[in-house]
Amino acid sequence: MIIKVLGSAAGGGFPQWNCNCRNCVAVRAGTPGFRARTQSSLAVSRDGESWALLNASPDLRQQLGQTPELHANPKHGLRHSPIKAAVLTNGDVDHVIGLVNLREAQPFSIYGTDRVLDIIKSNSVFQVLAEPLVPRITLPLDKAVPLSGAGVDLGLTVEAFAVPGKVALYLEDASAGEDFGTQEGDTIGLKVSDPATKKSFFYIPGCATIDEPLARRLKGASIVFFDGTLFTDDEMIEQGLLGKTGARMGHISMSGPSGSIAAFSKLEVGRLIYVHINNSNPALDENSAARKAIDGAGWEVGYDGLEVRL
Ligand SMILES: [Zn+2]
Question: Which pLDDT value is given to residue 247?
């Protein structure tokens, strides 16, 4: 299995277009130790020919340009795409908007929970990807399903599972109480497996907390790509960027007693890679104390173009 990180930043990317925080200024200036990042997406393939996207970010067109494996292959004729499927983990703008880049009458399949597929169905702009050319396929929870699209079996399965999280920001219902109307299926994690080799990895770009069932599921995994939005829960408030904590946005922080570093310290995962990293996160500075703490805990900070073979 080949896994490529197409985009490792959270919504807004790095630098974010309207941001003058310390990190964004530094990366724009080309300061050593800072690397620009596009928004959140992975690609996975068993054979290197047919690929599935895991989320479709607004930066997809740029990501495709930077990833030769995803270019149209001339041996398949005038029009071709190696992308046979796109699997969505939630309805966030940074995870679904890239779908519209895949128009031009090219067949592929869109996988998501009913909650997320309902967003695609109710927003008419996504009709540029009309069925039956681009079928929507419901992902059940806790059941591995084979991935296919455009008549191609990718030779991989994907299992969706609910993770603690929040409904997409633009669907928040303030009158619905503390969880803003969040329902099961609004945020999922994915386990992608190769049945032939029995190898698998987890992709969880959005997660509010690691509860007991999630910890049990991830224990002993070979690789987990995990939500690295914030280093500390209140860093956006502290930096004067936004009056919201990570917890309020549905994202666990890296540090602290209830952060992901602490939670994973007992889970014996082979390789831990942060993705979906917000531009406010001090870990984006390779020379920061935050980065040293992450390195010391055995985590990697994902970057665009990172390739993992499994
Ligand atoms: Zn910034």
Answer: 79
- CA 299–ligand 1 middle distance (angstroms): 23
- The answer, as to whether pTM is greater than 0.85, is yes
Q: How far does residue 13's CA lie from ligand 1's centre (Å)?
A: 9
What count of Cα atoms within 13 Å lies in the side-chain half-sphere of residue 63? 31
Distance 64 CA to ligand 1 centre (A): 24
CA 220 – ligand 1 centroid, Å: 35
Residue 69 CA to ligand 1 center (angstroms) comes to 31
Give the CA angle between residues 17, 21, 24 to the nearest 5°.
50
**Is the CB of residue 6 less than 8 Å from the CB of residue 67?**
yes
C-alpha of residue 212 to centroid of ligand 1, in Å = 33
Q: Is the dihedral of CA 10, 67, 65, 188 positive or negative?
A: negative
Condensed to tens digits (0 to 9), the pLDDT of residues 101-145 reads 999 889 999 999 998 999 999 999 999 999 999 999 999 999 999
Distance from Cα 18 to the centre of ligand 1, integer Å: 8
Q: Say whether pLDDT at 32 is over 90.
A: yes
Q: Report the C-alpha gap between 52 and 45 in whole angstroms.
A: 6
Instruction: Quote the distance between the C-alpha of residue 125 and its chain's center.
Output: 22
| Mean pLDDT, rounded, of the chain | 94
Dist. CA 253 → ligand 1 center (Å): 17
Give the confidence band of 164 by pLDDT, cuts at 50, 70, 90: confident
Q: H or E element: which one contains 277?
A: none
pLDDT, position 180: 66
Cα 230 to averaged position of ligand 1 atoms, centre (Å): 12
pLDDT tens string 208-241: 999 999 999 999 999 999 999 999 988 988 888 8
